[in-house]
Specification:
Length: about 220
Amino acid sequence: MTPKFLLFLLSLSLLACKQEGSKTDNFDYKYTDKPDVLSCEQTKTALLQEALYAFEDDIVNFYTPEKPDYNRAYSLFVSEALSNKTDYSKLVSPHSQTVFEVLKNDNALWSNNKDGSHLNYNHPIFKCIGNSLKDKNFKTTFNALIDTNSMSLRMINPILRRQARGMQNDKYLATYAALELFYGKLFDVKINSQLDEDEAYEERSGLKDQGSHEGHNH
């Protein structure tokens, strides 16, 4: 094998890696200018980061539209999501709905659990999340539940409530919350078929009339 041919193969490999984060999942990535916050083998990190950033934008725009406050948005979202009070039809943006449709193509990521969760905790992403969590106590509990196949939304519920305000500073924990409480919930809710219309989303979410966020002034 000649040096020129080896160089050619290397160039193709680098090009493929570069294109992974652009349009390989048949949709336009919106957050390619954002910093890389996840590093997990055997997972589509670019897609998961896109999902995370889309999720964060949605909860901030919905819960704290006047002045973005990630900690408050996470706290309000987690509280409502765990209490089954989240109105996903108003919360989910067109882009997040598109991301969800792409995420659904990863069959290994999803399951049907008795507690209502749709995540397959045997997927490599959860091992990666467990190894990267910042809070030591939560990390120990999370990994123990994953390793013993005991993970469930019911078991993790009270800890998630306590950890909500720290999610902005722990992107691995935030990714778990996004998959569990946001994208995973979209299997069970009917989102308006016109989600691709940005104007319709803005009207539903209250971005056109930011004074209409009654019920979120907790």
